[in-house]
Amino acid sequence: MRMSGTSGYALMQIRCSQTQTWRTVSTHLTAISMSSESWEELATKRTEWRTAVKTGLENFESTRLEELDSKRQHRKTRPKPSYDYTYDSNGNLYCASCNRTFKSKFGFASHARAHARRDQGIS
Ligand SMILES: [Zn+2]
Fold first, then answer.
1. How far apart are alpha carbons 29 and 71 in whole angstroms?
2. pTM score, whole prediction
């Protein structure tokens, strides 16, 4: 079953099956801005319930898409890292800090990022 205007993902998230725990259902109710204490009363009024679920899902979905767009925008505007490739006399890439040699620029870049993380204290 699919409601128009809402994605299958959102419907899957809100659908309450017997295998889901109350915590999961409560999380989904919170996601669509519905109180977990008063939802049963609202559910007895079918028209209002359906309107509340549909509106909540639309808001949830638009917020989710905006967050995804913002994350993508942040990722796309982040400056690309630049590496100072160091070559020995034989033309092999090597690390100036620990003299490790590499077969590819990708391996060198990964190693340089690991050095940067270690320097920042992130393991
Ligand atoms: Zn190194």
1. 24
2. 0.52
